[in-house]
Design goal:
By secondary structure, the chain is α/β, with parallel strands linked by helices. It has one domain: Thiamin diphosphate (ThDP)-binding fold, Pyr/PP domains (Rossmann fold, 3-Layer(aba) Sandwich). Helix content is about 40%, strand content about 15%. The protein contains eleven helices and seven strands. Strands 2-1-3-4-6-5-7 form a seven-stranded mixed beta sheet, with helices on both faces. Strand 1, helix 3 and strand 2 form a beta-alpha-beta unit. Helix 5 crosses helix 6. The radius of gyration is 18 Å and the shape is globular.
Length: about 260
């Protein structure tokens, strides 16, 4: 069998989404930011909204999203992505506006921004990457760092008596009247990655329907700062993070239940 015959027998089962650039990743080996980028790009392609989508990325590893997701992007100051997204959406209400934020950014420096954007019911979508540390700046303790978890700023482990308990963002934001869709998913295996993509699609659909604030939290790995191999990091997420951050739908507006995705 010659090369041409072999090529004719091949079946293409996946193509890079057009909204995902052809740049090689700049993330650490095993980091799941790249997976999250691909899911967002696939949803944008499938919805046909590439030309009307605007992303907002703040400071942190999340800022590099503009290099890989090929839509209009703006950078916000640390923690201020929801405020910038609010201004863009109000000025351009026909656009799909989303923020792409890490845990140190969104639920530490930007706690006030995210809570009040959700309280106001701003019609934006938030993709929240939770890897339990400040990744870009050296792996310091974040509001999502688990009890007993060692970081560069908690070398003996997080002591809840001195440092408080981790914040569960979904559980907090789901209580606010302005939210329409708040869910937690994970990127640690193919099944959960598929479920994460569906959640991102529903969150974008909620915005397209003008239903207010939507957020998808994605539990993610950070092998470098966790001091683990990519395989070990995936296992650690499943064994340590899932018990503390249960996956599930924390708030789903009844009118979203008719979506068949």
């Amino acid at each position: 069998m010659n090369i041409r015959q072999e090529m004719e027998m091949e079946e293409i089962i996946y193509r890079r989404p057009s909204t995902l650039t052809e740049l090689s990743t700049g993330y650490c080996p095993g980091c799941t930011h790249g997976v999250a980028h691909r899911l967002v790009a696939e949803v944008i392609d499938e919805m046909g909204i590439r030309g009307q989508t605007i992303g907002v990325a703040p400071v942190g590893c999340s800022v590099f999203a503009y290099k890989f997701i090929d839509v209009d992007f703006v950078q916000a100051a640390h923690g201020r992505a929801p405020a910038m997204a609010t201004g863009i959406k109000r000025a351009l209400p026909d656009r799909i506006v989303f923020t792409y934020q890490g845990d140190g950014d969104m639920i530490s420096i930007g706690t006030g921004e995210i809570v009040h954007a959700a309280t106001r019911g701003e019609n934006i979508t938030v993709i929240f990457i939770n890897n339990a540390n400040f990744a870009m700046t050296g792996g310091q303790m974040a509001p999502t760092t688990l009890p007993g978890m060692k970081t560069t700023s908690s070398p003996l482990g997080r002591d809840v008596e001195q440092m408080g308990y981790p914040i569960r963002a979904c559980e907090v934001l789901a209580t606010l009247d302005g939210t329409s869709y708040v869910v937690r998913r994970s990127l640690h295996n193919p099944k959960n990655i598929r479920m994460a993509k569906k959640a991102i699609r529903i969150a974008f659909e909620a915005q397209a329907r003008g239903m207010g604030f939507s957020m998808v939290e994605l539990l993610s790995t950070c092998p470098t700062n966790w001091g683990l191999s990519p395989v070990q990091a995936t296992k650690w997420l499943e064994e340590k993070m899932l018990p503390y951050y249960p996956l599930g739908d924390y708030k789903v507006h009844p009118t979203l239940s008719d979506l068949k995705i």
